[in-house]
Amino acid sequence: MNIHEYQAKELLKSYGVSVPSGGVAYSDKQAAQVAEDIGGAKWVVKAQIHAGGRGKAGGVKVVSSIDEVKKTADAMIGTHLVTHQTGPEGSVVQRVWVEQASQIHKEYYLGFVIDRGTQRITLIASSEGGVEIEDVAKNKPEKIITEVIDPAIGLRDFQCRKVATAVGLKGRLMPQAVKLMKAIYRVMRDKDALQAEINPLAVVAVGEDEQLMVLDAKFNFDDNSLYRQKAIVELRDLAEEDPKEVEASGHGLNYIALDGNIGCIVNGAGLAMASLDAIALHGGKPANFLDVGGGASPEKVTNACRIVLEDPNVKCILVNIFAGINRCDWIALGLIQACNTLQIKVPLIVRLAGTNVEEGRRILDESGLAFISAENLDAAAAKSVEIVRA
Amino acid sequence: MIVSVFVNKDSRVIFQGFTGEHATFHAQDAIKIGTNVVGGVTPGKGGTTHLGLPVFDTVAEAVRETGANVSGVFVPPPFSADALMEAIDAGIKVAVTIADGIPIHDMVQLQRFRVGKDSILIGPNTPGIITPGECKVGIMPSHIYKRGNVGIVSRSGTLNYEATEQMEALGLGITTSVGIGGDPINGTDFVTVLQAFEADPETEIVVMIGEIGGPQEVAAARWASENMKKPVVGFVAGVAAPAGRRMGHAGAIIASEEDTAKAKMDAMESLGLYVARNPAQIGQTVFRAMQENGIKP
Question: What's the whole-model pTM score?
Fold first, then answer.
């Protein structure tokens, strides 16, 4: 689960991390009010969408009057912001974050990930901030500093000092860096975050002095931990998620829309991916990924059919079930129920295997409905592609 | 000599969460195929019997009273890590967790807990492990697994069934099937399973089924090319998967170029593995590799 930048900054602030003074606004008037309340002479107006790449796409503007804050917010709110991460349709900007503009001396990168190789939280830092860390990793790998954290020991001060020195955060900035790294690590642990990214972490002018400040922050939280993270769940913005995917997950289905015309209903993530691959190998294009999961009831199968058929591009549906914890007879009953209640007009190609397969096939045969049965994965994919081509 | 990988007819199996619906069903199936189930654990129900077997409050008691050394952990995801630590602490040598949805920070803690302890953890998010005719700890349809000389290891459960059925249609059976699971952190990785298959006298060829996301397929292929005499057949699901999306499994996400199915299969091929590029041809590819290496089914 992702959250917005303003939510991330508010979360960090509650852990004692320095972020610019600012506020969220849902209208141009509110934005102007926020700017007035926080004061200053320059402000940054930032479109709040989950996708990255907002700066290049025009979603971040520095302005120097309250009137400009208002105009900029008005121009942003309600528009579709298209970044390299949103896809061509973009994301609708529902709100902006207005903050005091900082006088930036230098930008750094700071991130925490759960590294799959070491199976531990790993701190990543770089003196190359404000740019995509993937580009730094590719072009200047020596500028990436990593520190693996032992979960039983936690992140120690000396590790933070080591990382700070390596990226060049020295002298009076070092204790600030240590405090900040430890705070973000605490957020990771307390809130079950999968990833935290501070980019940029900036050294900014404060009068004659300098201070470390978080100018942008991104968090990704573990969906499997949301049951124990009520405060994080409150931050969920459903408008940022595909409504069909949200609906599907409400039915215990895992659905991802794709751009082809062969609908897919499969059990198990691996077999579902392999089914897409088999369709592609036969020259077809899948319309979606859909995993019905284990223990699929007839109702669940009906819901799966309905969600797949909401996509007007779907010309046929490939049902591929290899039942382990599932039961082929339940799947068959679900398909018949779906045919009867949804008036399905596209052909259904059905491949059943595993638990109660004979019973499942018998139910389909005796239904009198025109299912196209397939012996195996290859035949199912071939028949689906043949049908959409005809 | 102990044949087969991780579990066999000498394994003494308990189930944690024994009296629950799924554990009951799969314990019965396990017993039917010959698994030596010696009891189970459900805190609060110690002293009773279930399926004619003793129920204990703690794993430590179960180990002491029954000599159990393998545990199928059928407790819900929020409680799984704790149950697994209990099993390992009690001296269980092979723990299998089918739970899909264990918080990743719990897995980080669990993997740290296991450091220096002699245990094998299969899963999470796996159908489990089966040595046909000897021992099943998991939720797979046991009737599709016939005994033979192919070792199979996969991240996905249903794709494991798929490959097994394709092999069976060609008359190929298996020694042991290990599902390492679809999560980003696996208790046991591909390399550990390949090591076990290489050491197992009955296994003559290995099929490894991966998917998008994470570095371990390539690491395993590299290890195999440097250390294994037995041929390895690889397949990676998700060639048609879009980048940046979690494809059902928590661990199946393309975060970089190396995470793609194509990159992984290319790497496997360049490291000398047999590669099935088509998920419908995993069985045939194993068959061909066996012929080329003079291995009889």
Answer: 0.93
